[in-house]
Amino acid sequence: MDAGHVADDLASVLLSEETILARVGELAREIGKDYAGRDLVLIGVLGGAATFTVDLARALETPVEIGWMAMRSYTTSKRSSGSVRLLKDLDLDIEGRDVIIVEAVVDTGLTASWLINNLTIRRPASLAVCALLRKPEGAAFDVPAYTGFDVPTGLIVGYGLDYRGRYRNLRCAAILADNVVRDHGR
């Protein structure tokens, strides 16, 4: 879906599809160089990072295995609850393997920190994070990561990110208009 289809719902377009895909390619080259010849596993964080995870895997020039995890770290009001609840655990054995956690957005860093702690006990050879978007203003945890773009605070939708189940299929990344959130509640 193009931004024009939901223009009234968007405050601004942050990143075009072309800009995102170009940066995904750059991240893939960087990761490919750092992990050349190694047994790499990407762990995508559902649902927001699904699009990014698949595009990143397709841009890598080495075979990778993809696993998925899902968790909830926000209450219904979209304010951080301070805790993480696991909704879907990883189905892969990662012991002795190089693992990259793929996140759509690192906001406070709570989910990424929780994942690092959770996966470390599974004894991977190495563990890193790759985030398409990072909101430096909201950081409460220091999460070193391969980072696509630093973005401002605001409710970001598109390229896999949603608001109340909508906008995941938007090809760009955009800030949702305040009136949409106000009219539909958080």
From TrEMBL:
Cofactor: Mg(2+)
InterPro entries the UniProt entry points to: HGPRT, Hxn_phspho_trans, PRTase-like, PRTase_dom
Record-level Gene Ontology MF annotations: guanine phosphoribosyltransferase activity; hypoxanthine phosphoribosyltransferase activity; magnesium ion binding; nucleotide binding
Keywords on record: Cytoplasm, Glycosyltransferase, Magnesium, Metal-binding, Nucleotide-binding, Purine salvage, Transferase
Subcellular location as annotated: Cytoplasm
Reaction catalysed by this enzyme: GMP + diphosphate = guanine + 5-phospho-alpha-D-ribose 1-diphosphate; IMP + diphosphate = hypoxanthine + 5-phospho-alpha-D-ribose 1-diphosphate
GO cellular component, one term: cytosol
Enzyme Commission identifier(s): 2.4.2.8
Pfam families registered for this protein in UniProt: Pribosyltran
Highest rank taxon of the organism: Bacteria
Pathway: Purine metabolism; GMP biosynthesis via salvage pathway; GMP from guanine: step 1/1; Purine metabolism; IMP biosynthesis via salvage pathway; IMP from hypoxanthine: step 1/1
Domain Phosphoribosyltransferase: 16-163
Gene Ontology biological-process annotations: GMP salvage; guanine salvage; hypoxanthine metabolic process; IMP salvage; purine ribonucleoside salvage
Family of the protein in this entry: Belongs to the purine/pyrimidine phosphoribosyltransferase family.
NCBIfam families per UniProt: HGPRTase
Protein name per Swiss-Prot or TrEMBL: Hypoxanthine phosphoribosyltransferase
Source organism of this protein record: Winogradskya consettensis
High-level lineage: Bacteria, Bacillati, Actinomycetota, Actinomycetes, Micromonosporales
